[in-house]
Amino acid sequence: MQYTQGNLGRIFLLKFEDDDILLEKLATFVRKEKIKAATLVFIGALKKGDLVTGPKNPVIPPEPNKVDFRDGWEVMGIGTIFTNKSGPQIHIHSSMGKKLKTLTGCVRGKSKVFLVVEAIVFELKGLKATKAIDPKTGLNLLRILGS
Length: 147
Description:
The protein has 1 helix and 8 strands. The protein has about 150 residues and is mainly beta. It has a single domain (about 10-145), classed as CATH 3.30.1330.80. The strands form 2 sheets. Strands 1, 2, 3, 4, 5 and 6 form a 6-stranded antiparallel sheet that branches. The protein has a two-stranded antiparallel ribbon with strand order 7-8. A hairpin with a 2-residue loop joins strand 4 and strand 5 (about 85-100). The longest helix has 12 residues, at about 20-35. The protein is globular and about 45 Å long.
């Protein structure tokens, strides 16, 4: 295990509206506010989009199991944001439900908001961390610096 210590910075309340592309709007906000590191929680609904629901098999490098969803799902989730030289690196996991079905996974691509998503973003200051492509897995993983 590795770790770094930091402090809580600014706190933002965000309201995403119907048809907003969640990850695109979030990345625009992160760039505008010059956020380097943050965590977020959110609730609301997603109209349609893509989710990675684990690997197809537990091998390294993993092959993602991709699932498309549509027709409006209630959603709640949590995520991290680390900005590197390529821009905001957003990693969101969520659970969503529709009728008696449930999906849990990593929100990807052009997932669209249905009606509203409310989010709280907690800026993290002083962390010695970034995101970078891990050569072993090919994934964009957290790197704790100087640990």
